[in-house]
């Protein structure tokens, strides 16, 4: 046993001393790292498969990968879904994953911007319904193309609906007006 260890050490030292052999030795990745890489690719595949149909079609993918992802979108649970995502991970190894990450981020950024815009519309609606002329003046300074009289009428109707505990039809109209006006810009 001691002789085998000594031979192994001598052999290892010979490899280290030989600079030409060091250049030929590829970087060795651990089994754990390989598993982490595969898991990351599976997660990426799940993220892409979970996109809406419009977002999914906007992502540039090869036909084979697109077909595999469409198949995964059809599956609901079980081992078949796991196997499909392992297959997708295998396909992802052969492509430039960085460009896929960039395209995915671009799609997600669009969604985040749209959501933020909707939240802004909702905040203006709530402020206009709750507030009075001060809020209306502030809104008109931010959006000078808005119709003051129309918004003021909707504000009054919304206040009346709130007081009478009726459905917020006027508040919805304020939201729609704000949305249409801003998106028309």
Furnish the topology, listing elements before pairings.
Elements: H1 2-17, H2 19-24, H3 31-49, H4 53-58, H5 63-74, H6 79-92, H7 97-130, H8 133-142, H9 148-163, H10 169-184
Helix pairs in contact: 3-6, 5-6, 7-10, 9-10
Question: Quick gist of this model?
Answer:
The chain has 185 residues and is mainly α. The chain has ten helices and no strands.
Description:
The protein is mainly α. The protein has two domains: 29-95, PSPTO4464-like domains (Diphtheria Toxin Repressor, domain 2, Orthogonal Bundle); 108-184, Diphtheria Toxin Repressor, domain 2 (Orthogonal Bundle), CATH 1.10.60. Helix content is 81%, strand content 0%. It contains ten helices and no strands. It starts with a helix and ends with a helix. Mean pLDDT is 80; it is low at 1-6 and 15-25.
């Amino acid at each position: 046993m001691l002789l085998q260890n000594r031979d192994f050490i001598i052999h290892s030292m010979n490899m280290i001393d030989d600079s030409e052999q060091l250049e030929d030795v590829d970087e060795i990745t651990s089994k754990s790292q390989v598993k982490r890489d595969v898991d990351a690719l599976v997660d990426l595949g799940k993220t892409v498969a979970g996109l809406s149909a419009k977002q999914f079609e906007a992502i540039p993918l090869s036909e084979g990968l697109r077909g595999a992802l469409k198949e995964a979108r059809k599956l609901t649970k079980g081992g078949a879904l796991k196997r499909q995502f392992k297959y997708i991970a295998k396909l992802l190894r052969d492509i430039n994953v960085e460009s896929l990450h960039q395209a995915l981020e671009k799609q997600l950024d669009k969604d985040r911007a749209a959501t933020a815009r909707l939240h802004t519309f909702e905040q203006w609606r709530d402020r206009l319904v709750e507030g009075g002329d001060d809020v209306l003046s502030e809104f008109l300074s931010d959006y000078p193309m808005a119709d003051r009289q129309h918004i003021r009428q909707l504000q009054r109707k919304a206040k009346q609906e709130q007081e009478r505990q009726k459905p917020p039809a006027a508040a919805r109209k304020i939201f729609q007006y704000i949305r249409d006006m801003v998106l028309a810009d």
